[in-house]
Design goal:
Length: 344
């Protein structure tokens, strides 16, 4: 059995593990990152070209976190030399936009309530009913997901973080001086282990007696050709539905937490009924889009019952479970907070 020693072991090299590794790479600590697949794999929650970035939430906690995250994204762009967040502006429509407007106002974020009759002239890529009201927030946009993941890992590894790909962690074991992270024929020993393994986190944490109340679901997203790249759009309903530019594809659209509970180790199928609903919505909201999807795929969401994040320390184990579907935008902030938990 080969043993790898470091101050910190990070389990999972998705966007949260990568962001945490980048932060810790400046701490002077030694860090091993253990990933069961190759970074950028399509089995989890961090792959693809884009994710929505938005400040618009009905909760001042998340608005203020998004504001802080945006400044950290810009700092990461300075550090890496890469464009990581592209500002397009974004719309919210539907059931709760007044609460979003109130939270944005309390946090000093700019926004505008816009009548549907005026949208077509100012944003011809979007269609609203004339008597409909939408919330426009100019700081919204897209995070370039695959580019951000690559950039964070590149910075971390350049600073000495060691990445162990294709190494599946099977269990965690607390020791007198930290924690042992057991993989097949390898053990990683550290003073602290940070678990950022998405849909695989709960059963892994259970091996060390740590309970994480999350449910992995398999969500379907579809891609559409579109004449002109639009602002982002979130329509709050049950389920909510969203769309955003996707570099290399056109328009990406999906339903939020509409998929079935899943085992992340098993391949999933595209939900054709979801694709039909998404296509009808795109046809209604985006006049320049081809309503016939060019492609569709699945991804894993891992959420707590209330969709709030779990960022906490249990002895020598730090849990990092920022819920899929709205967590990606906070990656540099989450990485900072998990690093703080690990080194506190």
């Amino acid at each position: 059995m080969k043993v790898f020693e470091s101050d910190v072991v990070i389990v999972g090299a998705g966007i949260m593990g990568a962001a945490t590794a980048r932060t810790l790479s400046r701490s002077g600590l030694t860090v091993n990152v253990v990933e069961q697949f190759e970074p950028g794999h399509t089995n989890g929650s961090s792959h693809g070209t884009s994710r929505i970035f938005r400040l618009s939430y009905p909760d001042t906690l998340y608005v203020s976190m998004a504001q802080e995250a945006l400044s950290l994204w810009r700092a990461a762009e300075e550090e890496t030399g890469d464009s990581l967040v592209v500002t397009t502006g974004g719309f919210d429509a539907g059931e709760q936009i007044e609460a979003n407007a109130d939270a944005l106002g309390q946090c000093g974020a700019s926004f505008e309530m816009v009548k549907g009759a005026d949208v077509g002239d100012r944003w011809p890529q979007i269609r609203l009913a004339p008597d409909e009201t939408a919330l426009w927030q100019p700081d919204a946009g897209v995070t370039l997901a695959d580019r951000a993941l690559e950039a964070f890992l590149r910075v971390a590894m350049h600073a000495g973080v060691r990445l162990h790909s294709n190494t599946r962690v099977e269990s965690l074991e607390l020791s007198e001086d930290g924690v042992e992270v057991h993989a097949k024929e390898k053990t990683f020993h550290g003073g602290v282990a940070i678990v950022t393994s998405g849909g695989w986190a709960a059963p892994l944490l259970a091996t060390a007696g740590v309970t994480l109340d999350v449910k992995p679901t398999r969500e379907t997203v579809s891609y559409f050709a579109i004449q002109e790249s639009p602002p982002t759009f979130v329509e709050w309903s049950n389920p909510s539905i969203y769309a955003l530019p996707a570099p290399g594809f056109g328009l990406k659209a999906g339903e939020h937490i509409a998929g079935p509970t899943t085992d992340p180790d098993r391949p999933g199928d595209v939900n054709l009924e979801s694709v039909e609903r998404i296509s009808a919505w795109v046809a209604d909201r985006f006049p320049g889009a081809d309503p016939t999807p060019a492609s569709a795929e699945t991804c894993i969401y891992t959420n707590t019952p209330d969709e709030h994040f779990v960022l906490e320390r249990h002895g020598a184990i730090v849990v990092g479970s920022p819920c899929s579907g709205h967590g990606f935008k906070f990656a540099p902030l989450i990485g900072k907070r998990l690093a703080d938990l690990a080194t506190r």
